[in-house]
Amino acid sequence: MSKLGFRRTLMTVRMLRAQSPELLKLMLGQIFSSTGNGTVVTSFVVFVQRELNADNVDMVIIVLVGSMSACLGLLLLMPIVKRLHGKELYRMFMALKAVTLVWPVWLALGFTQKWEMFALVVIGGVLNPSLLPTIRSIFQQTCPHGYEASMFSLLGICTVAFVWIGSAVLAMFLSATGSMRWGILAQAAFTVVALWIFSSFDFKKAQEDRAKIESGEHEVDGVGEFDELRAESQDSSLTSRDSR
What family does the database annotate (predicted)? Predict the structure, then answer.
């Protein structure tokens, strides 16, 4: 199954490169976006413990405040996301993504008082959870029908598989300087690159590519191999059921 998944991923990338380069831009941008933003989020607790001497009570407050802020953010923003289409949805995503550039800069250059960590948890908790649903909505509006499973699987890989790079960069700066601040600030570079890639995304062109693929106007590279992989997947599922 792992070999089948790896081959399917390669086929999806090849098809995107050949027939839908705009979706490939979204994938690449998501890699850099999740690397920078994910590293900031996952290292936040360790950062405030080291830099602000946050104690266990502070950690409990952060968890509670962050959870409530995330729920509030989803309740407020998701109805808006559902009503937006096309370029309006894209502009909202770019605005949300641009705000996340503030997180590493604030952490690195500010954070001298404890109230700042609670303020960032509130603001970040409201905005951050809406990023992934928003880019998934953009993807849904530009992804060719019949390829959703492979495309969204690849989007998931781009979201989680490369976060370790940001952690490695953070560890490198921590070893060199003895402080997490420079490592956190370096995460801003990932966000800048992500914004640059996302800014080159053409929503109209992506929808035109989608229409061409769905209408069969041009032959989709690898479509036969996709059918072969789908058949292999079905065969393997039947085999596993029979073995039970």
Answer: Belongs to the ATG22 family.
DSSP 52: S
Render 105-150 in DSSP notation, one character per residue.
HHHHH---SHHHHHHHHHHHHHHGGGHHHHHHHHHHHHSPTT-HHH
Residue-range domains of the chain with CATH: 2-243 (1.20.1250.20)
pLDDT at 216: 67
The token pair at 115 is 């109230």
Q: What is the DSSP string of 153-222?
A: HHHHHHHHTTHHHHHHHHHHHHHHHS-SHHHHHHHHHHHHHHHHHHHT--HHHHHHHHHHHHHTSSPPTT
Q: 86-99 vs 181-199: helix axis angle to the nearest 10?
A: 160
Residue 219 tokens read as 């032959």
Cα(94)–Cα(124) distance, rounded to whole angstroms? 15
The identity of residue 115, as a single letter, is W
Neighbouring residues of 142: CB distance < 8 A, sequence distance ≥ 6: 20, 22, 23, 26, 203, 206, 207, 209, 210
Residue 208 has pLDDT above 70, yes or no: yes
pLDDT number for residue 229:
45
